[in-house]
Amino acid sequence: NSLDNNIITTFDDNADSSLINGRYASFYAKIKPENGMNSVFNGDNSKGFWKIRIRDEVNSNTGILYGWGLQVNDQQIRSKNLNISCLIQGMYDPSSNLLIPDTLTVRLFRSGVLQGTGKGLIGSDGSCFISYTSDGSVNNDNTFYIQALHRNSISVYSNINFKFTDSEASLDFITSSNQVIGNNIIPVDISPIRFALYSGDVNQDETIDASDLSAVENDAAASLSGYVNTDVTGDDFVDGADLSIVENNLGISVSEP
User: Quick check: 19 and 39 in contact, CB under 8 A?
Assistant: First the structure.
């Protein structure tokens, strides 16, 4: 049961210590497994079906696994890491300055060609960590721009080209609208100043229109609940609050530039 987001753990037979109960305060460490991995996986192909099993042994707590990934290799290659600040209109609360966490997909482009796709969890403060596998094209010398996509929002493209410096880069879509093409984000707070992706593109056709409104109306009438695209406020219920956001954005003809 962890409150951390974007947990990254490396299991390495050559790590300096074995996993012992109570030794690690965080799961961000490089850990030597109790049983050697080389002897178990030697000769096997890492491609195939991998499963993660989650067991909740504590009462009165809840949580959601938004996504997970597994990288298997024996090479010391440093991934390219992007730290992006991004908010979602319907999921942001200006009274608390907090966001309901949700996943964000970020596509990395160079000269109009897709170089990589990553997914991360946007934290309550809007911060999101995306990692890309380093190869011949995703390196520190080339310049890139990104497309940020959310499951029921209008996607945006960054307005600048950037490089990874020491394999790290940062983008801020929160404090200014001029970081995205066409300034296509909406102000959601004036103190502090905050911008967010437009919510309401529930069918992801790059525009907020009558088809989105119809989908939300139908699910609201059916009192649909859960992690569904028509829940643009992120409260796990489709209701009038979701309808209001979609209807307002429909009225101002929000679409991807």
Answer: no
Two tokens at 245?
A: 């956001």
Cα angle 63-71-155, degrees, rounded to a multiple of 5: 60
Rounded CA gap, 194 and 183, in Å? 13
Is 84 exposed, middle or buried, given 0-12, 13-18 or 19+ CB atoms closer than 10 A? buried
HSE-up (13 A, CA, CB side) for residue 3? 2
* Distance from C-alpha of 32 to C-alpha of 29, rounded to nearest angstrom: 10
Specify the pTM: 0.73
Distance from C-alpha of 140 to C-alpha of 6, rounded to nearest angstrom: 23
Tokens of 123: 């934290």
Q: What is the pLDDT of residues 72-100, one digit of tens each?
A: 765 555 678 899 999 999 999 999 999 99
How high is the pLDDT of residue 19? 52
247 token code pair? 């209807």
